[in-house]
Every structure is written in structure tokens, then in C-alpha cells.
Fold these 2 entries.
Entry 1:
Amino acid sequence: MTGDQSAQQPASGGTATAVGGIEVASVRRAFGSVLAVDDISLTARPGEVTALVGPNGAGKTTLLLMLATLLVPDHGTIRIDGFDPVTQPGEVRARIGWMPDGFGTWDALTVREVLHTIAAAYRMGPVEARARTEAILELLHLGDLADRRARVLSRGQKQRLGLARALIHDPSVLLLDEPASGLDPRSRIELRDVLRSMAAEGKTILVSSHILTELQEVADRAVIVARGRTTESQTLDAVELATTVGSWRITSLDPDRLRSWLHDHHVPWRAELAAVEVEVGGDEQAARLLADLVADGIRITAFAPSQGALEAAYLAATEDRQ
Amino acid sequence: MSLHGIRTVAGLELKQRARTSRWPIVLLLWFLFVAGVTFLSYKALNTAAIKAGPTLYDVTTFLVLGLSMLVVPSLTATSVNGDREAGVLATLQTTLLTPADIIVGKLVSSWAIALVFLGVSSPFLIWAWIAGGIGFGQVVGSLLVLAFVLAVTCAIGLAFSTLTARTVASAVLTYLGMAGLVFGTVIVFFMSFFLVQNREQVRYYGIPDSFWQSQPTNADGSPSPDAVVPTVGDCRHLTREENVIHTERIWWLLPMNPFVVVADAAPGRVLTNRDVYTGFQPMREISIGARAARAGADPRERQECNFGNPGDPAELPPLQSGPIYPYGLAFYLALGAGATWLAIRRTRTPVTRLPNGTRIA
């Protein structure tokens, strides 16, 4: 991989900077009178998985189209491994693997033929194309689907084919738009593992998704966009998470005693079906609360954060939505 | 643009088409239709006195060209916007394929399919060649011109498919464009006669008005039974004012018509001698007419001193100019190259402006 990365550095005298990864600065894009992306800035570093989250219509897909060299931004700059997608699309295309949301595929071709075609489109010779195809089929567990026509694949299988397509030329930057949608639980876990291992190889990975719990497990950082703007960029770092106020859900065999105990100790709570939810300021406080409850003989069966930090941040960032 | 890129796209397109359409049935229907028309023409026209070969050749060539004009646009008219709608165009655009690879690859694959249709009809063209004394060169030459016109048709469809977001719109526009070339050129040619006509003095050799005026008439002005029938001896060299249509100013509309190009390109014909008439030959008639149109207003003396007697001057053969198909080929070359260039331009990414309703991915 180190060899690859040194090869990616542009020759001296090029306009590209030596920075790898994705740099987006104040990008804006309108379609007629509709402002799809107003002002988005973000950084995705090599070796990290960066999550792009936001409500529907926040501009995520438009941003990814600009990163994928398909759309020119009205304003602002983009650098991918130091190259500008507008003026150096060829350089960028050689380095990115783009998996669009809701893409189509050539219905009549088999999975293997689709991958051969894409490999040829990346100027690989037939021998190399076959070798890469088999490697990717293996990596994404698509081997038993290899000779099926793309038309008969389920949505989740098509998603996996889309990921395979994005990986065929061993790109250094991955742009994935909703990669987990339609995937069954096992495939999701496999996707997570694939993304983590890609990041470990030093690739830059930008994933847009709605499934926040999934993202929280895989992403190093999250960029939250709403109404075409970056509202927050946060590190999903254990230390930071430990001090964030969050909701915890408590289930007990003695619900009445639990509620009166919370009441007596002036802990604000609200009923959530059979459980109760309390607001706790960080892991330290949560641990103390649990110890106190157990010490007072209340039989606790479950004690867990009710929403992820990412979910909390997302809800906070988008709560002004109508 | 690279050979590898073009081959990748063309291979993909051909594989897609071969597996998604019922080509064997379509080709069989095409074969049967061409076979039926050719066979019936042969039965109707071949007599001991007249060889049906030249007629068969004309009928078959025009039939194949006409049918191709219906089929071929459908091969490309929804190619680019259809791929866009299906979400597969962007998949190729984000690879190292250039827009030229994509467009030329699509052009090559659709042309290859058009050539299959031409190939299926070639047995009849060759039969016509055998049935009548048509040279081998003529068959090959006409096939080449046909193949070229089909390639341009593919390019026109491709260009329209990059111009509109909806596949229906590009299909309609492509067919309108083809109708413009096939019918529009001829209609505009004939309708613009009034623009190029002048009152001019023309020379003629015939009976002077004074001859008729000197004949006795009845009281009501009808010819009297005493009137004399004119003879050759009464003919004079005279002039009169007439409407003269200067088709030499508008002849260039004709080689824009694919049928005229194909008809005029068929080599090895004795075009000036109309007396050697061996039956219905639309291509020959079109070729003669188009070349006469290019030659324009006839400056020769009109021969009107015909009384059916032996020795009367025969009607003059139509004026001839050089072949006009080279102009047609040049026009189609420019049209095809222009359409391809436009299609490549319209497939370039990243894009700045998106037309309404267009999807990228």
C-alpha cells in the first residue's frame, strides 16, 4: 500500500497539493432555483472512515456527485488526493471508487461480466481484469452469484455488486452513497468489516447513510449536513463520548421501586414502555447511578444508552426542521 | 479515445442488446418481408422480353433502405438518455473511459447491428445482380453507400439521445429528423420552384402562332372544317416567353436525401439514353431527375415539331450533369461527424449545467 500511495503523489510542478484524502471547502451547487448544496466544507483523511449524515434532501448525494467528477460546483473547491475533479477528472477517476445510491446495472450481464466490463473501463488488460474480479468476488462473498444475471439479484445483492464495482480498480478514495440500504444483517456486518480493513490499508472512505447506529460502529468521524450546510463535524472518539450528556434506558424487575427511587433522588425520568429513560452526563455518572441502584437492592436487568452519540448529535443538529 | 475503450463499450452494448431483444425473430421477419417483396416483384416483372434484374435491384435496395430508416434510428435514439434513466451511464463516466470512447463505442455497436440487417437482405441484392445484367461493382458500391448512410443515421439518433432528457422526445426528434431528410428535402425542393422561376425568352422549333391565325374559323371561333393541318414544312425557329425554373439554384437539396444518394451512387448506368427502357426503375429515374435538376434550366431549343412522321426530331434527352452523390456523401459525412461531435460534447463530465429533468446518476 505504501508503494501505491507514493505513486499517487503528483509529480513536482503539478497544481495538486501533497495532501491525501478529500478536502471540500465552501462548496455550493444550485439546480436552477433549488439550492441543493449551500455551503459544505469537510475533510476526510486517509485511513479513516468519515460518515456523512443528514436528513433527506440535505445535499449529500449532490455533494457526492461533485466528488465523483460528474457535477461542477458553482462555488468552492474540492481536492481528492490533491487533485481537482473539475480540471483533473482523469486523475481523480483513477483514484475514486464511487458507489451511487439507487444505481442501475446492465440487466443482461452476469455479475462477473459486469465486473470484467468495469475493469476494462479502467484500462485493465483481460488477465488483470479476471484476477481482480475473482479477488473482489471473494472479498464480498459474491462468488455464488457470479454467474447470475444482474437482473435477478435482490436489492441487497445489487448493493454488494455496486460495492464490488467501486472496488475493482483498488481506489484510494471510496465514495459510498447509502451502501447499507437493503443489506441483510450479515451483509451489513461484512460491509463494516470491509470498510474497516480498507481504512486500515490507508484508504479514505466517505460514507453517507441514514443508519446511524451502523455508522457509529464503523466511522471515525461524522459530518452532519442539513439544508445544504455543514452543521457539525465531530469525532466519534471514545474520550469525547464519555463526557457527552446522553439518554440511558433502564429496565428493572421492580419498575415501581425504580421509579420511586429516581423520584426520591431527584433524577428526572420518563417512562418508555416497560423501561424508564434518564438523562446522564457521561459514562462516569452513568456508572455511579447504576452502582447506587444496585446498592439499594433494585434488581436491574438492563442498563444501556438509549441512543448513540451520533444519533443524539444528529437529532440536535436537525431539530429545527419543520 | 482509445481502441480498448471503444471495444469495451461496443462489446458491452452488443452483449446487452443480444440478450435483451428477440433478434432472431426480428431478423427472420425482416428476411421474410424482403424475400416476399423481391419474389413478388420478380414474378410480376420477369418476362421473356425484359429481364427483371435492374428493377429487382432498385426495388430491393429501396425497400432495404426504407425499412432501415425505420429500424436503425430505434437502435440509437434512446441510447444515451436511456442509459442515464437506467442509471448506468454515470457508472461508465466515472471510469477512465472518455466521452469519445462511450459515444464511438455506442455508434460502432449500433452500426454493427444495422449491418446485420443489411447482411440479411444481401442475398436478394445478389439475386437481383444475377437475375439481370448488373455488375458486381454496382452491388458492392451500393452496399457501401447504404452502409455509410446507416452509420450516419445511427449518429443522428445518438446525438438526439444526448439532447433530451426523455427517451420519447429523442425518439420522436430522431424520426422527425429522418423524415426531414427523406421527405422534407423533396417537398422543399418542389415547393421552392416558385422562388427560382423567371419569365424568360426560350427558343423553340415548332408551329408559329401566325399559322393558326391564318386558318379560317367558324363564326363562334371554333376551327373551321377548311383548316389545314400543319406539316413539318410549317415549323420555324422561334422564341416565346415562358416560366423557366432554375433548379440549378436548389438542386443541392436533393443529395441531402438518402434515397437520392443511394440511387445516384449506383454506378455503371447509361443515364442519357431513355429509350433503353427496361421496366420500372425508380433508382434510375431518380438519378436522371436529380442530375437534370442540377444541370438546371435547359438552354436548348425546344423540339415541338413532332407529327409522328419518321424523320421528325426526337424529344431531347434530359440534360445531364456530373454525378451528385459525392455531394450527398460529403453532406452525410459532415452530418455524421457533427452529430458524433455533439454527442461527445454532451456526454462530457463534470457538467456545469443540467437541463430540466435530467438525472446524472
Entry 2:
Amino acid sequence: MSLTTPRADRLRAVRRAWYRFRRNPAAVVGLAMVLLVFVVAIFAPLVAPFPEHVGGFVDFRNRHQPPSWTHPFGTDNAGRDILSRVIFGYRISLTLVVFVLGLAVPFGVLLGLLAGYYGGWVETVIMRLTDVFLAIPALVMALAITAALSPTLLNSMIALALLWWNWHTRLIYTTVASLKHEEYVEAAKVAGASDFHILFRELLPNCVSVISVKTTLDAGFVILIGAGLSFLGLGAQPPTPDLGTMVSSGANYLPEYWWGSIFPGLAILFTILGFNLLGDGLRDLLDVEVN
Amino acid sequence: MKSATKWLKPLLATLIAGAGLAFAQVNITMNTVQIFGTIDPAKVTDYTEYMAAANLYDGLVDVDETGAIVPLLADSWEVSDDAKQFTFTLKDGATFHDGSPVEASDVVYSVRRLLTIDQGPSYLVRDVLDVDGVQALDNNTVQFTLSEIFSPFLTTVPLMFVVNEEVVEANAVDGDWGQEYLNNNAAGAGPYMLDSWTRGSSMTVKRYEDWHMGWHAEAIDQVRWLVTNDEATVRSLAAAGDLHMTSQYQSNETYDALANSGNFRVVEEPTATGFTLKLNTKVAPTDDVHVRRAIACAMDYETIREFIFPSDPMAGPLPPSFGDAVLDTIEVAEYDLDCAREEMAQSKYAGQDNIPISHLYVANTPFEEEIALMFDAVFTELGFDVTLMAEPWNLITEMATDVNQTPNVNQIFFGPTYPSADSMLFTQYHSDAAGTWASMEWLQDEQVDSLIDQARRTADVSEQNELYQQAQARIMELQPNAFLGLQTVRHAMDNCLEGFRYVPMQSFDYNFSNYSWTCN
């Protein structure tokens, strides 16, 4: 099924998928939002109106300026342009996503493959360990880890990565457990293929759609929990422009200077919504169950 | 129907009477930004802890707004000609919260307890007073005999809070002087009694009816301190009528919002509390005096005083309220980046890039974070690699006990704990006082030590002032601080609440027996 699709067939399949994807307006909007966030984050120094307001910069004479043409999102308590800081804040959020999912997804998928394919004691050990991790609320555990280590961006990324792999393990485990009795796996076995070949050339490609949907949906949650950690002061430290930290410091001046908190909050909402719409669209498109 | 009204009437009457009583009770709430660590009068050290102690306990004498020592549990006192012996006569009729009389033996017990436990204000007198130096001559007379002249002695006596010997000893475990007990309970003769205390969140004290100083008609019946430094919480509590006095550490925005609400007014008093950057003189790069001078040149004092933390200019270690002890030739520092660059060029770190420097401030305090951001902006430009550290206060006091854990630059408020220049100089700069949050400079300079010591041993005031001035000159030479400003203490207070007056002694201005509720 997956082994020898000719190139033309594959192209056609892709085109057909894109056609179906385009017919789902929510998914297209989601994709556009996510792309926008990525583009803005990558070209932050070019896009941001006041890139110098991101590092060490203060202008107390301009504090708490309401939204205007010069400062569309207003300025914060140190007189810094909030729009510029939101744009750079996206960089931190996306770094967090890439780092956390980049570590957690491969690790979780590998364990899921092993547990599902081998069964027996391998399954018992891996799946019980997964259960233990699933039993701990992610935010509480992340709080404990970052508070015990020192509160930095790196530590909060490590804490989140430590907590994220188990979801993927469980998902891949159930997928593989049903796939391993498929005929093409049996056929590969009869043909004398190694376990390595079966795991990574037969089973893994058939999990890709599940993984990509789950990962896309996860991205939003990683941003949300990351923002939660920094809201509580356990993430990136000032003056790093982190969205959660900005919401938190802006909250000190609610409701008079609402823009300090509302705009970074909306920025978080925007990304999460984008990833969720995209993930839902992908799920419909690839027709997979992820939960 | 008839039978129903029969019992309804008395029930209603009771309810109305109950409501009337509740209405007559004056309960006020004030927020504090730090937790109460301990309320043991032998262990209190910071502003918040002294606030509790000043309400729960009374000492022999009190301090008024001018810094003068006035009678409290003692009616009168005499000082011997050699200035080494102090004899206090207790007033009649003063009682502890359990109703038992305050006697000379309680005072002796309290002072010995203070000296033995040695964790609170005992550091002020431990060099000149030992446990045998305090004696009860009779039931009403206490005598202190100092080993040598210690000129500020009388000004430290208000901090020697008197505990109820009988109650404390009844609850002592293995001769621990009742430390376990007084950590959670109060056994004093102060105006208020401990009612409830939830560590980390709130403390409530209620009026002691038989307080020896007597009560005025508009007295506050119950005071609740709520621990929160969240500005939004403070504002919503105030809007709901659940807060009557804010801490002195709210943001400008909060004071403005409360003043605009119509129910509050903002009271302001100049203080002798200095807000300074304490520079750790023992670790790189602030071990170099030129780096410290560069820091003193590079702070934008005007912006800080005007926009970030409203305060009065501060020149040197002694606030002007100390009169003739102040070295008045010290000039208020000004923001001058060229001066900072020149100083850096003379330092042993000249020409280096990315010199690591750490800057500590109290977490969740917006104005301190703003100063930290300002520091970061300036010093990154001057070639430093700045690390900003926002930590909770209890961790800061812990870090201050170890010279290597003490960051380079520390934002600290320090005001006189007793109305004497000695309080400002000894506590912050003398080697014997090193290792606390008040002395994060780790100055440990022989010359400064000896000048402070000499001043303490001098009974002659003008000679003493001369020594204090020399000490200030030497301190300015070493530049262990950048003097940001003298705090203008500000509280938003309910329009009905009166009585806040600045007292130049650790939290004595929050003794709520001096407050009144004027809207009955």
C-alpha cells in the first residue's frame, strides 16, 4: 500500500488532498493564520515597527500610551511598543513549540511503536510508565519542575517536553496495535524483513497522518501552557518579550491600561486558534481519530 | 398565624440587635506585600514582622513622630552619670492579654530571652549588654547595666518588646524560651491580641479592651492584614469595600485609581527610608570601586523619582532628618553617562565586553521591575551582560546571608529601626552586621567599623556627630550604594480612616491604636 506508489499517483493524491483541504474554509483560515505567525516571527526584525523595544530599552516618559497609529497596540509600563514585543513574542512561542514537540514527538512515537509492535513485557513497561505520566496534570508538573530548576525559558521547555511524549506514545501504541495484524505487515515478516524495517518502513509511514494531526493540535496547547508558565513568572524572564509574561505584567494595570494585557492575550488566542483550525482541518482531510 | 408572630418578634429583635452590634464594630483591612515570617518579638527583623509585633506587644518606651522616646510600660527612667546605667520604673495597672500584671520580672525575662535567642533586634545591643546586665530591683523597677557606653541605647529600648513570662514558660519545651509557642501565638501587653493567622495569606488582630494606655472613642476594633502584592486584587478589593488601607508599595496607577474612586485619599509622608541599590563590594565586577561609581553615575535618578517611584532626592547614607549627624557636603548624584564611561575606563574591567552583572529585585513589584529594566538598558549599552533576577522576599533574605550568593546589584529599602544615626550606619555598613538583607553591600571596611564603634562609645553629641560625618565621608569614597531616593511613604486610605503618621522607627507607624475610624 505505501511501498511502491508511483510518483504520478502520489502527485495526484497530493493534488486531490489539497483540493479537499481547500473546500474546508476553516482549515484554510487556520493555515493562513499559522503561516502568518511563522512569517511574522521569522522576519520579526523587518516587520516590527520598533525592533529596538525588544531588548533592553525603556522610555518611561512614553509609558501607557493608548493604541495609536504609531503604536497600534499601545505602549507598556516601560514605554515599549507592544506590537513589536508581540511580534518578537511569537518567536519565543514558536521556539517553544518546535523545541518541545521536536523532542517529545519523536520520543513518544518511538516508544509507542515499540510497545505496540512487540507487546509483552516491553508493552507493559512502556505503557504503565505512560500511565504514570498521564496521571500527573501537565501544568502542575511543569510548575514543579521549573520552580525546582531555575525559572528560565529553557527549563520551561524541558519541563514541557518531559510531559508531552506520553500522549504520542499512547496514540501510536493503539494505532500500531491494530496495524500490526494487517496483511502487508505479515507479508513483510514472511519475506524475512527485519524488525527495524517493519517498524520504520511499514508501520511508521502509516502513522504519519495521525502524528501530523496530533502534532498540529498540540502546538496550540504547548503555546497555551507555555504562556501559562510565564504568566506565573516561571518562563522567560524580562526583558525577553514573552507573550505570557506580557499578559501578566499588563494585568497589573487593568482596567485603565487594558491594552497592555489584552493585545498579548489576543495574540496568544490567534495562534492557538490557528493551530486548532488547521489541526481540525487536517483531521477531516486525513480521516483519522486522534483522541 | 398568631403563634408564628410570637416567636418571630424576639427573633427579629435579636437579629436587629446583632446587626447593630456588628455595625458598631470597626473592622479594617490593610494589604501587605510580604508574608509575616514570624511574630516572635525576639526574632522579628523586617518591616512586616515589626508591623505585627508593634500591635501585639508593648515595650518599656515608645517613639513618637519626632523620634523622641516617650513612656509606654515604663512611667519614667533615669540615666546614670557615666551613661552606663538605665533604670526604668514601670507604670501601675498595665496587664498582659491574659489579664495578669506586667512586672519587672517579665521585662527581665523578655530581655534575657531576646539576648539568648539572638535572632531579632538583639544585634543592636549584644556587644554592650549581657543577660546579667538586666536586673529587677523590685516589682516595678528594671535596671540595665551596660558594659561600656553605648550612646544610642535608649533609642533601642522600644524594640525590646515585653512578653508574659508565665505564659511563655508554661508553654516552653525543653528550655527553648517558648520559641515554638511564640512563633504561632502572642503573649504581650500590646493594644491588639492575635485573633487568627493563616501563614502566607492573612493575619487578624483584635482590640485588647484593658490595654493600659486606654482607648479613644473612635478606636479600631479589628485589623486584618491581607498578604497580596497583586495590583488588580488590591483595586478590586478596594472597589468592593473590602480594603481600607493599601500597603505602601502599590503602583502609581493603583493610587490614582483609588483616589479617583472617591472613597479613598492618598496620604503622603516624607520618610527616612532610603531606597538604594546595594552593591556587593566583594564579588566581581562590583568589587571595583570604579564600577560601583559608574553605576552611581548611570542611574537616571530624575526619571525614577518622577515616573517610577515618587520619592525625594537622597544624597548619602544618612537622610537629612538626622540633623547635625548628616554630612551635608555630599551632593545628590545625577544621571551622567559620560561619568559612567570614564569610571569604567579606570576600572580593572576596562575594555572587556559582556561583563556579567546580576541585578536583584523583589518579584511581582512593578516599579522595581521597571528600575531593573532601566538598569538592563543602560548597562547592556555600557558593555555588561546583565542578568535580572526577580525573587520572592524570603529568598532574598536567604541569599543575603552568603556573600557569594548576594547578587552584584540589589534593590533594597532600608529605614531606621531606631531613631539614631547608628541605626542607619551600623546596620548597613558595620562588619558585625554583615550577612543580612540590610547589609548586602558586604562593606566590611576597618575604617568605617572603627568610626561607628567610636561614635557608639561617645556620650558627647557633637563629638559623636563629627565621627558620624567622617564615617559618611569614608562610605561615599567606597560608593557601596547608588542612592535612588528617600521614600515618600504613600498609602491609599479609606476616607473614614485617620491616623497614619510617619515614625522613624521600624513599622511603629502601623500601630493601629493610634488610628481612628471617623464615620460612625
